[in-house]
Amino acid sequence: MKRLPTKVSADVWTGRTDHTERRSSFRYHQVVELVDLDKWQSSTDSTCAIIGFECEEGVRRNQGRIGAAKAPNAIRQALASLPWKLQEGNRIIDVGNIRCENEKLEEAQEELGRAVSAIFAKSMTPIILGGGHETLYGHYLGVRKHIGKDASLGIINIDAHFDLRSYESQPSSGTMFRQILEQDKNSRYFVLGIQRFGNTQELFDKADELGVRYMYEEDMTGDRMDGIATELHAFIEKHDHVMLTLCTDVFNAAFAPGVSAPSPFGLTPMVVRSLLRTVAAHKKTLSFDICEVNPVLDENGRTVKLGAYLTNEVIMRFLGGDNYDVGT
Q1: Are 186 and 150 in contact (CB under 8 A)?
Q2: How far apart, in whole angstroms, are the C-alpha atoms of residue 303 and residue 75?
Q3: CA 52 → CA 76, 184, 215, 231, distances in Å?
Q4: Which residues are CB-neighbours of 99 under 8 A, at least 6 positions away?
Q5: How far apart are CA 19 and CA 119, in angstroms?
Q6: What is the pLDDT of residue 1?
Q7: Which residues of 47-74 are buried (b: 16+ CB within 10 A; e: fewer)?
Q8: pLDDT averaged over the chain?
Q9: Which among 86, 69, 68 has a CA at the least distance from the CA of 28?
Q10: For position 326, what pLDDT does the model report?
Q11: Do 316 and 86 meet the contact criterion of CB atoms below 8 Å apart?
């Protein structure tokens, strides 16, 4: 049975108000529109559509730390008070949440895929707030339906882990990319931030077998970003379309303690922000998801706030394009 996203309460989108009429003073909570996806009509404006995936069943199956299902609304609350830097002609809407119930992960992923496809059909850019990284598979289902089975798809993942585990017994938050690569001959995978001791040798072997392109986190420093950007562009140019996913366990735990699988190693926010800006600015990039933020285990909301700031960076790139000056 098809289920529509559940609308979020307007109370989630509240924050400081500096001025009620002057748009240059507006923040997210003053411009976001809470809508019914089924009734929403396409507009000529550039629009990003936020959808949440309240799911941690994949994390539970993968023996991770539970709590990511609370992230979508927590990230919204952190976004609410951020300044809205774009002028008329750019819109942000919120279509609500898909919720995983009764441990039925696969059904929830199918529902997310249908919702993402519907967002594309209404000429909007999906911004998906996970949830565990199992969010990615539902995201992928929506993208593939939108672009068709014959289009080549590049999947860019910023992550400490390959997520290429076996799904023979059941899918989890550690299996999605193997599911995609083994079932979809027109998809390719590039993951940035891999930790040498965060993945078994079996997973490295599987990555090589499946033709995965990857970069170690220790090789991703600020002085190397120009070269990394060149490699990203080369990967993107080989595909008709690209989708982007961020797993927040890629960060050093000092920056992001509230994740499902924290590590003392990892990337800095500045490096990840640079990666997101590079990929989201490309015209072939269709959509974005952020996963594994865990508000239950966060310290003073640090990880939630970081997730919100990075999501904002992507939205600004998608909507602002060359007109949005993010600096270097």
Answers
A1: yes
A2: 9
A3: 9, 25, 29, 31
A4: 6, 54, 55, 69, 108
A5: 31
A6: 58
A7: bbbbbbbbbbbbbbbbebbebbbbbbbb
A8: 95
A9: 86
A10: 42
A11: yes
Phi, psi of 323 (to 5 degrees): -85, -10
- Name the nearest CA neighbour of 193 among 248, 114, 149: 248
Amino acid at 306: L
DSSP letters along 276-322, please? Answer: HHHHHTSTTEEEEEEE-B-GGG-STTHHHHHHHHHHHHHHHHHHHGG
pTM of the predicted structure, to 2 decimals: 0.96
Phi-psi map region of 126: left, alpha, beta (phi>0 left; psi -120 to 50 alpha): beta
187-194 vs 213-216, strand pairing mode: parallel
At 322, the pLDDT band (50, 70, 90 cuts) reads low
Which amino acid belongs to residue 260? S
Largest CA distance in the chain: 58
